[in-house]
Write a structure and sequence with these properties.
Layout lengths: L4 H4 L2 H4 L12 H18 L4 H10 L17 H16 L4 H9 L12 H33 L5
Length: 154
């Protein structure tokens, strides 16, 4: 918490709770998950845990519904990391490492690969969290529906 406490309680970061991210989670919940899991991996693998936690929290710092908003400058996968960096720079000074983490976190959906191991960590954790946030509740709902149809407790 000490690495992100100056950021997490700002109005800008807290407002992420108003946006759905992966059907069952808010953007704030998602960002906290990415921050924490990425921090743990960076610490385990002797990376810059502070920069990883901070950039993980800020990687999706944008204020629109990505399912409906369209851009002339490219896809959401390309545009939102650049918007997130600009918004993050209004809150705090970003190192080159933090900027790379945020801008490159959509690698595989975008072309430019990450420059640092911490960027790879956040990229992969972001994909893991997105998948987990979307699929686990969906599987639970499906399981409960089947149990309900069979007259069993879930």
């Amino acid at each position: 918490m000490s690495y992100i406490e100056d950021l997490i309680y700002t109005d800008e970061v807290q407002s992420l709770s108003e946006f759905k991210q992966h059907h069952y989670s808010t953007r704030l919940e998602h960002s906290i998950s990415v921050s924490y899991l990425s921090y743990r991996l960076a610490k385990k693998w002797n990376g810059n845990a502070r920069a990883t936690a901070r950039a993980g929290l800020l990687h999706d710092l944008f204020y629109y519904d990505w399912r409906t908003e369209k851009f002339d400058g490219g896809t959401h996968a390309y545009v939102h990391p650049r918007i997130a960096v600009k918004n993050a720079e209004k809150l705090t000074e970003l190192s080159d490492l933090e900027k790379d983490i945020i801008i490159k976190h959509m690698w595989l959906a975008t072309i430019a690969p990450p420059k640092y191991k911490e960027s790879y960590i956040v990229t992969m954790v972001d994909k893991y969290c997105a998948t987990h946030e979307a699929l686990v509740p969906a599987f639970r709902q499906a399981k409960n529906k089947v149990y309900s149809m069979l007259g069993m407790a879930g």
